[in-house]
Amino acid sequence: MSELVKQIVEKTGIPAEQAQQVLGIVAGFVKQKFPQFGGQIDSVLGTSGEGADNNAGGGNLLGDLGSKLGF
Known about the structure:
Elements: H1 3-12, H2 16-33, H3 38-45, H4 59-69
């Protein structure tokens, strides 16, 4: 489980599966607003073009991003 998903679970109390879905939705929204950064967003969040189903890679990057965002 990625660090960001763990933090979402801890802070909201929702199940990890739902937290991964939320992460996919947020990634899709950000990619829609900033399509030029789609690949980088997928890389950092560990998402794929499909959304929350792919959580491989990016675990350390998520921790770094969370630290920078105050999580």
